[in-house]
Specification:
344 residues, alpha/beta, 9-stranded mixed sheet, 11 helices, 26% strand, globular
């Protein structure tokens, strides 16, 4: 299972789960694989393809319960049955009601099925697991601060606080989450693309902008290619926009994250300015916070109060910058392969 967790850390499968699979026969590995990206073959299919005839009578170690539904790819439970796998060991039950049920199908067909939890497997898949358990997209806030504690200049602009390696890590977080969200002010002032350019993924994350007053012009780069989705109030939503209820403090961001999960987004990277991150913090919707600190100084500007209730998980150096990750208790942060390669 430890090897399966290592494999799961590869690829860019968002919004799908990170899954690794290892097939063992007569004490040796005969096939292994991981889910590389949405629409591509699942980990079990890759491992079965590598094993060929040797899969018959083998034991499959999988980080997540084999899926039991027909989506972009066929059910992995049926593929394991057809290959003649004798035993299946999985680390986490699939919390997605659409896909779960593979363990029961296999058990009913006579396959030995064992549930053996693995902290390594759960950690690498924490965003997906927590999204479905909480019935809302997993909220990851990302911010960069200067040495004197500012996130932006007094006029709201913020380029560039950190160095190249830290910015590449930010691109990795975009690809890992599979979706990026900012506020209207950041969209207007910084004109970000919100794309992944530091890594080759073969796809780009979904883009969202909170813009209840429609401040972002239609010719913004955010609406190039696959356009960003504008988030507005429920009463003013037009076709192609997401409308959410209004609370006293502003938009109901919990309802927004619930709707994002319903639309297939399991985690979202919140890259907005202090106001946007503060709004998610006040509604207790930040599950993980990635803070990049640099040696640069602004002297004065806009500061950010880090989200409360999170626990420091890791600190790493990226050249002259420092990257710290905080998350809620019970939601450990795994280390995907892209991060390992970035850190050398």
């Amino acid at each position: 299972m430890a090897r399966a967790a290592e494999l799961a850390a590869r690829g860019w499968p968002a919004p799908n789960p990170r899954v690794g699979c290892v097939l063992v026969s007569d004490g040796r590995i005969v096939g292994q694989g991981h889910h590389d990206r949405k629409g591509g073959p699942h980990a079990e299919i890759v491992a079965l393809g590598e094993a060929g005839r040797l899969a018959r009578g083998a034991t499959a170690y999988v980080t997540l319960e084999p899926c039991d539904h027909q989506g972009l790819t066929p059910p992995c439970s049926l593929a394991l049955l057809e290959a003649g796998v004798r035993e299946v060991v999985y680390a986490d039950a699939d919390p997605n009601p659409t896909a779960q049920g593979g363990a029961e199908r296999l058990r009913t067909a006579g396959v030995v099925v064992r549930h053996e939890p693995s902290s390594e497997a759960s950690a690498i898949n924490s965003a997906f697991l927590n999204a479905h358990r909480c019935s809302r997209a997993y909220g990851i806030a990302k911010a960069a601060l200067t040495a004197d504690g500012f996130m932006a200049q007094p006029d709201g602009t913020s380029r560039w606080i950190t160095g190249e390696r830290a910015r590449a890590a930010g691109h990795g977080l975009r690809a890992e989450a599979g979706a990026v969200l900012i506020g209207a002010e950041t969209a207007v002032l910084d004109r970000p693309l919100l794309t992944v350019r530091a890594f080759e993924t073969g796809w780009q994350p979904r883009r969202y902008v909170i813009d209840p007053h429609r401040r972002v012009p239609v010719d913004s780069s955010l609406f190039d290619g696959a356009p960003a989705v504008r988030i507005v109030s429920e009463a003013n939503a037009a076709a192609g926009e997401i409308g959410v209820p209004i609370l006293r403090s502003g938009l109901d961001l919990g309802a927004l994250l619930t709707e994002l999960l319903a639309q297939g987004t399991t985690s979202v990277l919140i890259e907005g300015g202090p106001r946007t991150i503060r709004a998610f913090t006040e509604q207790s919707l930040i599950d993980r916070f990635d803070l990049f600190s640099s040696g640069n100084r602004f002297g004065h500007g806009r500061s950010l109060e880090p989200p409360a209730g999170l626990v420091l998980q890791s600190v790493r150096s990226l050249g002259e910058d420092v990257w710290a990750t905080y998350s809620r208790l019970g939601a450990p942060v795994g280390v995907p392969e892209w991060e390992r390669s970035l850190r050398g």
